[in-house]
Structure prediction request, 397 residues.
Amino acid sequence: MKRLPRPHRHDVQIAVAGLAGGVLLWILGLFSRGSGLLGGGWALVPLAVTAALELLRRTRPQCAIVGGTAMVVADQFTAGNLATILMFTDIVYAAVLYGTSAAARRIPVTTGLISVAVTIGFLAWFRTPQALLVGIVTALVSFAPATTGALVRNHRDAAEAATLRAEQTALLAEIDRAQAVVAERARMARELHDMVANHLSAIAIHSTAALSLDDAATTGRALTVIRENSVAGLAEMRRLIGLLRDSGAGSEPVAAPTLAGLDALLARARTNGVSSGLDFALHDTRPPGAALPAPVELAAYRIVQESLTNALKHAAPGTVTAALAHTGRALTVAVTSPYGDRPGPRAPGSGAGLVGMRERAVLLGGTFESGPEPAGDGGRIWRVRAELPVVEGESSV
Prediction:
């Protein structure tokens, strides 16, 4: 058998106070009517039952209002007790406040119609203006508490909805913050990899050559290249630290690399690739004076830089070619390198470079592809190709 829920302590207090007050009125002989069909003692029965129904006002509001209505009707056949009427008004109020949504809409309408019907009925019966008082009392006992309960419930629901919206807003803000942190960490990782990997790859290749070849001249050239790349790598690291550090007022922003620096980039790659039999060439077919958005220039520069770094690590002897073409709506970046076995030392790769290049292209709304392709001389090449939109509104950034 299902047990009834335990009544709320406030409901118990209301029931005890109502019952005690009603008994006190009965002892003092204060009745709501002078007489009734039943004796004065019978007024205690509706009083006690209504007080018991108060225990259900919060847990079983529908049962409480049905029973309370029956007790109010029964009270009319006794001398009457004011406490019974007052407890009934509280039951009506609680039925709207704690009942279902359908009950909260139905009870005010029902009590309003009952109040109007009672007023019209008594006017037709008594045919005196005093009959309006019966309708007013009926409205005060039923319609007024029902309307009050509806107003309180609406305010409560509005407050809960506002709290829920605030919690959802805070949750969305936290999600946005977390996504922004992840995106910024990914951007920092790409910058760190693209700026430093080129120099570290050259250092790894030449240090391996210096250790494996017992030749003073080769060792001297390798140490020279190692020193140059170490100094350049430190400079790049300082630039990155300057970007990350909170600079004070009056400090000048550090300029991002542009495509104008590709000649210097390829010159450094030629120096680093001598020991591996690599040469580097640049084919720039862009129309002179064509302006590019800064994010596009940075992405194109980094893609070329990372492609040259990968060529230094893995390309077979031959010529590495970087090509730029501007079609008016997009900038095309293509880097090809000989694909096959290579003699001499190799620097290990992590695969993060290809991921970073793809991310840079996708963030600008462009495309990226890489992989081996057949060459015209019967050999194979490794091609990296990115297409970066340059027309305003086509970029996703």
The CA atoms of residues 242 and 251 lie 10 Å apart.
